[in-house]
Please model this.
Amino acid sequence: MEVLSLSIVPFLQIIQDSDLSTAFRESAYVWGIVDGVHVIGLCVFLGMLLFWELRLFNIGVRSASVSETWARLSPWIMVGFIIMVASGVILFCGEPVRYWASIFFRIKAVALVLAGLNAIAFHYSIGRRLVQWDTEPLPKSAHVVGIASITLWILIVFCGRLIAYNWFAPLY
Amino acid sequence: MLSFFQWIEATSLAMTINNSKYAFALIESFHLLSLAIIGGAVLVVDARLLGLGFRNQKVSEVAAAARPWLIGSLIGILLTGVLMFSSLAAGKYYYNPGFWWKMYFLAAAIVFTFAVRQPYVMRASAVSGTPRAAVIAIVSTGLYLGVAVFGRAIGFL
Model:
């Protein structure tokens, strides 16, 4: 009798066994290029995000107001994010079963969700009227959000790098 | 040169890294984090030189805000880079064309940054929109991009 399974692994196995995924996985050059694009996307995203976070602590480019800083940096942050996510999804599809089984991938995925929730929470509370903070000092909660964001992104970068290492038994 | 690389790989520092299961991976992670910070510190100023980003602020103000992050992350990336290099100097990097091209681009990027770019952007009179500013921005970003591309290529060559 077949047991009903809600595991995602059979679905990931179908992706991994597809011709496209197999060809991508076996092409060192294409893989290397997508991996390189992923890192460059990270540089643009996280590097520019840093200057936004700094502004929340009143450092960085201080003569730019809070709302102006966001207006100047957000296009770079968004473009970097899109490059990072698109290349990341492609990389994931190249070896989904192995990634899913990696503890570092799982920590990275959870941290990404938390970073997303943190950003959403900011933009629907403190960030809703950014111009208000052009004249008033930012509330303490902005610092909490900033520290949470930087901490999560450092964790994401580290786990992303460590996915390459099979230190722990695969999780299935 | 090969004997120099062999000597580095035989130092106790390199052996400590090689004998640890986790050291290389952790050093790599800090290297990657430094890379992301360099990316922002370079790009925010080069963008400004091209009239993008903080275009209402003076070039010199953006450059001054980015400077500690540029220098700090360069120190971080060089330290972690030297550690990784030492652990596989003769065994891997000496024979890897990606490594050599990365070093050429890195040397060029550092010389250009401190001999040409920083002296220009830190000056209060620095402006964007001139051919000179555009050339400095494009060369600067291009050189660092070269370092990143060949750095990534080391793993595939």
